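Any chance you'd type out a single protein's sequence alongside its tokenized fold?
>
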Amino acid sequence: MAARSTWSVASPFPIALPDHPDDLIVPAREGTLHVLRAATESGVQRVVVTSSMAAVVYGLTSTPAQPMTETRWTDPEGNDDHTPYILSKFYAERAAWDFVRDTPGAPDLATVNPGAVLGPLLADNASDSLLMVTKMLNGEFPGVPKLGFEVVDVRDVADLHIRSMEAPEAAGERFLAVAGFRTMREIADVLREAVPERAKKLPKVTLPDWVVRVFARFDADTRGALSELGKRRIASSEKAQRVLGWAPRSPDEAVRASARDVVSRGLIG
């Protein structure tokens, strides 16, 4: 009996920039294609690929209509400074759609494109996506840059994957997994309320862009975020809610859940 469905999460997510973009692009693209080839050979009916908002909102040649939706694709030749991670997610998702279009017997495809994934942990180790939360709670941010992003709870990302696997309407569709835009300053304020014993360690000021740019000369993690200064890339999950009945938690609840877990598991200093 043919397997019904599977999903692919074949894409590394490092915080520091690699030596060469292909260090991320090649494993992301080829890992996704390996899954699709195996699924085709095994008669899998549907594959759900975990893509990213990185494959949607970058490469702005002009101010796009906002909120952005599933119809938009990152332009790898656009005006933004593309990090290797952004390019890896774009090329991996594009390769997936090209594969199912061009390969006889390929499974149905759906993609889930999450924003910044926060929320509770599965084990006693914080993922790279939670480094911002742990560093804030550890007092490693004297101030926060003018950065923001769409946030989503990891539990809701998992739920959207399941809905994308099971719903007939999901075949051949992209779904943005976002619950709302939050700045780093807003996230710090939620953490202050969620973990009051850490309030003194949390940043209260927003840093001028020039200060962030100077600091980036000495810090690789900061350099990777310079292209985001002052940007507001607003997106909509209306399609996932309408087509699949998805109902995500608020971004603030995702932040609070992250804080509770990293504290209770002893993952902050």
